[in-house]
């Protein structure tokens, strides 16, 4: 173990970041998400890598200050809020924690097993999780989501209004999923309110740096490594990370864990976070996606870095 920790000096992490950057910066393949018009227009060449260590160092390379749609990565932090309020058991019982093995916006997953009601990291379960947040009314719920996000990120993120408008105008499929869940008694509040909160949280602008710090808080037992503030109860982190391990990259999660052994979460904006508990978190941003909706270049970058830094949790060597 001592040997492994020697790999995690600032100098070595920087070297590995640079190697990954040089190796993958010209990688092509994949395409920007096109079903949300705003995302289709983002420069596909943007590329950023950021690391946040559990002791609070933030290392950055490339376009790490560029703010892009956080999209599904927000699901992790709304889950953190609902879990903090209701407890892990209620999340398991009312939302579900098993993998769907299906695309993130699958209607079939709901239809096959509404009792399992998907899980908090796919669209259906994430909208249900928003409906599960305890507060009276949409404004109060949003301010809770916003406050917790701020504490995770160590700064207040803003919603990209153009993205929010773009998604609101085109989220008919999500609305249909929400109604279907509701019909099965697996929705816990007003439908349009929850869909709107979900869509707004997906529309946060976050930089690669922000995401590294947010994920770094999950790597550091719920304490923000930069501000040192306690953001959530330490005991919730393993539960949140477990959902990332089983569903973080949707129907590609099996392959992801097979290669990396780490919990991660992607978003169709092109970001992916990966968490090595107790050690560090890595965030990578590159817009072109594979058919599951995961950034092609971010997956390659992360796989390389996780391997070089020997972060795979399932590898005891
Ligand atoms: N807002 C997007 C949606 O609802 C988020 C999907 C994603 O990032 N996978 O479709």
What can you tell me about this protein's structure?
This is Glutaminase. The chain is of the alpha+beta class and 317 residues long. Helix content is 48%, strand content 9%. The protein contains 15 helices and 7 strands. It has a 5-stranded antiparallel β-sheet with strand order 2-1-7-6-5, sandwiched between helices. A hairpin with a 4-residue loop joins β1 and β2 (58-62). α7 (123-132) crosses α11 (191-202) and α8 runs parallel beside α11 (191-202). The N and C termini lie close together (9 Å). Bound molecules: glutamine. The site of glutamine has 11 residues, from loops.
* Mean pLDDT over the residues: 95
| Total strands | 7
The largest pleated sheet is described as: 5 strands, antiparallel
Helical residues, percent: 40-55%
Dominant shape? globular
Low-pLDDT stretches are: none
Task: Name the structural class.
Answer: alpha+beta
Order of helices and strands: HHHEEEHHHHHHHHEHHHEEEH
How many structurally independent domains? 1
CATH architecture: 3-Layer(aba) Sandwich
Number of helices: 15
Q: For this structure, what is the CATH homologous superfamily?
A: DD-peptidase/beta-lactamase superfamily
Subunit structure: Homotetramer.
InterPro entries: Beta-lactam/transpept-like, Glutaminase
GO molecular function: glutaminase activity
GO biological process, one term: glutamate biosynthetic process
